[in-house]
Amino acid sequence: MNGFLGEIGKKLAERWAALLALPGLLFLATAATADTLGWAHALDLARLRARIELWAAEPVLRSVGGAVLTVAAVLAGSVAAGLVAAALGRLLSRLWNLPGRRPPASVLAGVRRRRSRRAKSEADDPAATARQVSGAIARADRVSLVQAERPTWIGDRLHACRVRVEASYGLDLDAAWPRLWLLLPDTARTEILASREAYDASARLMGWALLYLLLTGWWWPAALIAAATGVTAWSRARASAAGFADLVESAVDLYGRELAARLGHSVRDDGPLTVAEGEAITTMTRKSRWDPHSPLAD
């Protein structure tokens, strides 16, 4: 048991260091550089070296107690910065998935909706050549795999997963997913969890980009760091969101019939889930008194 607990503690420490401490230490080092150099001496390495030597000569660092307290303070600061970045990442993840009903999100959603409709109309043009149709379809899919409705590409990509599942199987993915998750084998769960963690990690990275952007007020090179971090985070977020949506949709494709069988709504032993079965699963899993087919309906 002691060995087991020790291994768990080791893994937690490694995860803590990777997610919070190490990125936080890098951020604190950048913040210290920004405070030392400022805009006027942004690239003055000699000034930075002199300040580091001055810090190293501080009497407090010559004692064991002072050194320990300094290290503890730095680690605490790095963890605090990591927690702030993680909180910003969670906030950004929610913003990426806003439905876009109110300004300014509704304005962005309107722009994406018009782009999607324009590309769709070009693809449906009977006078267009095969090459033009192919190009229009590619442009439409780059905007969204279904009619664009959300302010961001990520929001539409995750929304498309729900729309396509409901259109194909009559299944409310939000209501049915917890039951389907319980049926998935470990390999499928591992893949889905890994893709979700990649998405969360990209959101945290965007949180770090915002923190670096704050340092721009003291040190202009921080803007370059923020821009590079933000572009990387957005690229990873798009890729991980697409991968996560593909895996969730694949889980429905592969295990939807098993869910129907477990819930007693399967009328066949093979083939894909039917719309009638999906609608029956939706009614059962929603358990809504507003659904006229539900036993809870008033």
Describe, in plain words, how this protein is organized in 3D.
The chain is mainly alpha-helical. The protein has two domains: 2-42 and 70-97 and 154-286, no CATH class; 99-151, no CATH class. The protein is built from ten helices and no strands. Helix 1 packs parallel to helix 8 (186-214). The mean pLDDT is 87. It comes from Nonomuraea wenchangensis. This is Vegetative cell wall protein gp1.
Structural class: mainly alpha
Instruction: State the major sheet.
Output: none
Tally of DSSP β-strands: 0
Helical proportion?
over 70%
**Can you count the helices?**
10
Oligomer: single chain
Radius of gyration: 26 Å
State the low-pLDDT regions, or none: none
Mean pLDDT, as a whole number?
A: 87
Number of domains: 2
- What is the end-to-end distance? 54 Å
β-strand percent reads under 5%
In one word, what is the shape?
elongated
